[in-house]
Amino acid sequence: MVKFDAHGPSGGPQIVHPLVAALHLGPEPGDVPGNLLRAEGAVTEAKHAHPTLRWVVLPELFTSGYADLAGVHRYAEDAETGRSAEFFVSLARRLGLYVAYGFPEKLRGMPGISDSANLVGPRGVLLTYRKRHLVQTLGEPDIFVPGTRTPVVRAGGARVALVICWDLGFPEVVRGAALEGADLVLAPTGWRYPWGPQYDLVCAARALDNAVYLASANQLGNYPEATFGDPGGIYGPDGSRLSGNTSTTSIGEIDSDFPDRWRASFGCTLLQAPPTSEPHPLLQGAHFRSSPA
User: Fold this and answer.
1) Among this protein's residues, is 203 annotated catalytic?
2) Tens digit of each residue's pLDDT (9 = 90 or more) over 8-39
3) Of the residues 60, 77, 105, 253, which is catalytic?
4) CATH class for domain 19-283?
């Protein structure tokens, strides 16, 4: 693949690209204060080890832990004024970076909670994303209100979108973000054993499908309901894994020009085929949208 430490045309100094980190942590179920301190230590350590670190992603439902979903409502909070939002905005301001983290969200103006993720930066909460595809076999639809949108915002020089865990299994979610201009997708997950190989495949596929960078952080550890044993990673627009697959911290470089270079050489998969007058027989009666609502 294209190397990220490319030199200028005259062989000048090495180009320094910003970094993204996926931190695969093991939150303690229900210990919101303790989990925030775990995140603070891990994010601070990563920033000190990698001064050009600009974006960090933490696991799904990190503040409460992905465990005991029937009781997760006890730890739900407002997306903008909750304890975790204030904590991570302060941390982002102190370290000069952007953090995506999962949390149970108490919805405004309506009953229920969502499996949500915030992207925060030094100036506050930039976006809140609600998991769109809830896992039927785990009872998530009985607990969470699904989201309907995949917003994209500018953060740290990239156009960033969030998705959560099982959303990665549905190509249209990341495709919708890419069609809105996203070039970096941050994905908090709670991806269970024994489906680690499929986790790696869907991350690589969604990055390649759309020629975007994708960074995914998984919860790790043994919990009463399940084992979470496979760290996520950082994936490039060509689908290659930019980080190792054994560490609890995955680091990758983000070259903002590479997605366009890759599309120019490989082909732009975002181009939509013109409609045909007659659909294929297998698709008659089906209803599709070019991008999600």
Assistant:
1) no
2) 344 556 788 999 999 999 999 999 999 999 99
3) 60
4) alpha beta
